[in-house]
């Protein structure tokens, strides 16, 4: 349910469970984690989804069985954040719950105009994954992070852009093309150069 494509330094990972709003199972999360852990030759990693939703978060049945608090979420987002290459989340639709962690860990976030962003941990009675609140607050500030995490606010794309939660709004038909355009300079460079500039920005 994770489609993997590798082409000349570009690793594309596609959440491919559109009939279930790309809700994530433990197996899918482990597959993503393994793909990223072994992405040694990638100069750009691109995350996107099939269909009209990026991800609804955890699969509900597995969430009730313990997936919502499983350490795999934190391990995955930490691995994405630590990558020395450029990471882009091309959000083809709504991003919800624990799936937000992988997008927050990326360097750049693009989204379609209809995307919405929410993380309903307060209502569901779970804590967010440990690194997610700090990454969110670094992008949008602590008060707005609390609006999402503690007040359960659902943020639409225009507001997410003005806050800095996403970096650009792109028409659905142009989303992957725009992501690849942003990736082009890094793909044309040596991996060590990409890593060196990323280290300087950090």
3D architecture notes:
- About 45% of the residues are buried.
- This protein has a single domain, classed as Alpha-Beta Complex (2-enoyl-CoA Hydratase, Chain A, domain 1), CATH 3.90.226.10.
- The protein is of the alpha/beta class.
- β2 (about 10-15), α1 and β3 (about 45-50) form a beta-alpha-beta unit.
- It is globular, with a radius of gyration of 16 Å.
- The longest helix is centred in the last third of the chain and has 14 residues, at about 175-190.
- The protein is built from ten helices and ten strands.
- The mean pLDDT is about 95.
- The strands form two sheets. The chain has a six-stranded mixed beta sheet, sandwiched between helices. A four-stranded mixed beta sheet has the order 4-6-8-9.
- The chain has helices at about 25-35, 60-65, 70-80, 100-105, 120-125, 130-140, 140-150, 155-165, 175-190, 190-200; strands at about 1-5, 10-15, 45-50, 55, 85-90, 95, 110, 115-120, 155, 170.
